[in-house]
Amino acid sequence: MRALRILPGLFAASLLAAGCQQGSEATAETATPAEEPKPLVLVAGATGKTGSLVVAELQRQGYPVRAFVRDTAKAAERLGPEVEAAAGDLKDADSIAAALGGVGAVINAAGASGGGGEDNTPEKVDYEGARNLADAAYAAGVDQYVLVSSRGVTMDDHFLNRMFNNVLIWKRKGEEAVAASGIDYTIVRPGGLGDGEGGQQTIVFEQGDARSEGIFINRADVGRVCVAALKHDAARNKVFEIHAVEGEPQADFGANFEALAGS
Ligand SMILES: NC(=O)c1ccc[n+]([C@@H]2O[C@H](COP(=O)([O-])OP(=O)(O)OC[C@H]3O[C@@H](n4cnc5c(N)ncnc54)[C@H](OP(=O)(O)O)[C@@H]3O)[C@@H](O)[C@H]2O)c1
Predict the structure, then answer these.
(1) How close is the Cα of 248 to the center of ligand 1, in Å?
(2) How far is the CA of 165 from the centre of ligand 1 (A)?
(3) Quick check: 221 and 203 in contact, CB under 8 A?
(4) Which atom of ligand 1 is nearest to the CA of 90?
């Protein structure tokens, strides 16, 4: 972790010192530690189905958000005019660098599936775009990068590669580029995405990419996991698959992150 964080002990000590100076009766026991300030989060793919839910979850949890979008009018329509939007394209490194001022973390939920011209291929977006964002974010001192990848990225003969321009192969190369960039990363590999409500099912965390078909998760739950990764150091430098099963929804994913092996 590269960002300066407020240490609870230091915070309590300064409160105590302030209380002494002012003759207050405040003590370290009675002082409530302040919540750490939340970083500004840049969301790539924010106009997409998953990205817009990532933005909504960030807002719900009080994170300042900047949407990195190709079309600001579409962003205003999808996300609401109150969400700050930076115009850019993951294929254009300069536009990424220009969007990173003050940003503490990035979440990349972009994918070439949304169309956008002949040059907007999985190679250009899911690989090079993910890499461009990682390199620019690392250079700008951004503290963490959460990437929405996919189950099946290690299966070169997966049918999705035949159907969609080797999309899973390019997504794996994107993962590798993010991990090699030097930034702290969290790589989230969801199963097939659905549009149902989040927070209604148990989210299962796995590693090893052993299976990819017949396993689903709602995009809203992917958003919840991505945002949770920002506040748990145990989510850093880990790669994992997620899917949903019937059962009690987790209130928090900290224990799931703790149980994962690091990369
Ligand atoms: N569908 C599945 O079942 C499934 C399963 C596992 C993983 N995934 C992955 O999960 C992620 C989210 O999927 P989704 O279906 O929610 O996505 P989506 O609705 O198709 O949204 C894709 C987003 O990527 C943006 N984008 C595309 N090219 C871009 C570029 N060159 N620069 C910047 N932004 C660009 C799009 O912007 P515009 O609005 O401007 O087009 C859109 O906001 C994707 O990475 C996908 O591959 C999908």
Answers:
(1) 29
(2) 15
(3) yes
(4) 32
Question: Does residue 22 sit in the same domain as residue 99?
Answer: no
Number of domains in the chain: 2
Burial of 146 (0-12, 13-18, 19+ CB in 10 A): buried
Residues 165 and 47 in one domain: yes
Q: Is the domain of 15 the same as that of 44?
A: no
> What confidence tens digit (pLDDT) does each residue in 69-96 have?
999 999 999 999 999 999 999 999 999 9
The encoded tokens of residue 60 equal: 């719900």
pTM: 0.90
208 CA to centre of ligand 1 in angstroms: 23
Does the CA dihedral 12-17-18-20 come out positive or negative? positive
Residue whose tokens read 């506040």: 231
What digits encode the pLDDT tens for the residues 146-182? 999 999 999 999 999 999 999 999 999 999 999 999 9
Same-domain check for residues 26 and 156: no
Which amino acids bring their CB within 6 angstroms of ligand 1?
A: 44-45, 47-51, 70-71, 74, 89-91, 109-114, 116, 120, 125, 129, 148, 150, 190, 192-193, 219
Domain co-membership, 23 together with 93:
no
CA distance 80 to 82: 5
In ligand 1, the atom with minimum distance to the C-alpha of 167 is: 47
Compute the distance from residue 32 Cα to the ligand 1 centre, in Å: 41
| Residue positions annotated with a catalytic role | 150
Range of the domain at 250: 38-259
Which atom, in ligand 1's list, is nearest to the CA of 71? 40
